[in-house]
Amino acid sequence: MICISVTPASRTFAKVDILNAARQCDLVELCLDRLVKEPDVGDLIADAGKPVMVSCRRKRDGGQFEGTDEQRLGILRQAIVAGPAYIELDYEAAQSIPRFGATKRVIAYTSMKDAYSKEDIEEIFTEVKQLNGDVVKFTWPTPTLEAAWPLLAAVAKKHEIPAVGLGLGKAGVTFSLLGRKYGSPWIYAALEKGMEAFDEQTTVQELDDIYGWREIDKSTMFIGVVGMGGSEIVTTQCFNKVFRQLDLNARSLPLMSHDFGRLKSMLDSLKINAIVTSRHIGDQMVALADELEESARISQYSDLLLRKKDSWQAWNAGWRSAVKMIEQTVSGSGSDKRPLDKQNVLVVGSGSFARSMVYGIEKRKGLVSVTAPDDKEAQNVATQFDVRFVPFQHLYNTLADVIVFAEPGLSSGSNKKEFNPSYFVPRMTVCDATEMPFDSIFTAEGRSRGAKVVEPKLIYADLLSAQIKSITGKEASASEFSEIIDAAIEAQRVETDI
User: Fold this and answer.
1) Cβ 134 vs Cβ 186: under 8 Å
2) Backbone φ and ψ of 21, nearest 5°
3) Inter-axis angle of helices 260-269 and 145-156, to 10 degrees?
4) Residues 75 and 61 in one domain
């Protein structure tokens, strides 16, 4: 089931919010925190059409109730008389309010700072039984998968009393999707943007459109997508669309991690056999691998990890898609089999992603030069691949047929560590895959100055197609992603304009 929480400020809005939520969920949580006057709960829930759970939380539990605790307990006692399907009670309230009628008791344990320990959780289950509880609810901050891990363990482990969890933060959606797989009685979502119970809570529409939560069951295979930025969300949406089309019981699982040492053991526990990564952390993901294919080993960059038997194998597919699209842009409609042969290609960057691009362009016989704001690091890359090094301050005196940006976070401007787009001329080809599928400032500048632009969305779509084939063994045309990618690009444009 899915539970949508509504926190109305008036009785009129309460009825409207309940009816709107009931159309999209299985269980409505009516939070009484903000209702100034004592509400007539019986009247509010009479026409809900779906089971209702009533709550009234203190500020220390993440709620908004500003009255005394005596007043709050009085509201909860009156609410339970109205006969809602569930009533949420914190430990103190559960001690004061006995079971009444057919209303089930959700005993809530909330920590706004730290996760409960494994030992605490086991004691809580014993305590909830003594409090005559029907469901135990855990709430705590989940900015990363590591923070959500004890919450997931509490829900996944079989207990006499079922558990639900509410993760506060980016990894909350990760917990919700895993909770769905492991049989949590319900998961939480916001009705719509602007009505979240806490910052970064996922809306029910996002759970449907992006994550396809309704089809997740105990047999669902998860594909990890590390990171939760704009491009990772588009990746998740594209993957899930193709999984549906291929009739695969698989879904993308967003993973937020800051401890890559622990991530490997968690992936094993979750039986996740494939993960894809963003350009910004491809170098960190290499550390998870037991085996590296050649380009991943040389560049120390990976955008795809596959579990084969008992080992993780790192693959680097991004450079292939980028170089493929560079060649198509350079050659146009031509039939040249090696359009980069003897072309002067300037790679701007010194990290692992830059190394992977140098590796790929060299494979296609391009004449590579390397520059970056950090001259020492750029020189190290040039030495590794035996290519030309260009000091950053001298790059504007360097002629290039193709310029490839591979330095995430590089600023545009005329300062010492910035790149000045006045370098672009119409005969030049400009490629920046650091923010794909979205345009970077350099992609936009190159286009406006008449240069040939390698479209980031085409690189991105080709990469997704290659990754899906590696993961599933099945073909997925890059055109399958165009509608989702175009919609994401337009949404970003509108947001930027606002």
Assistant:
1) no
2) -65, -40
3) 20
4) yes
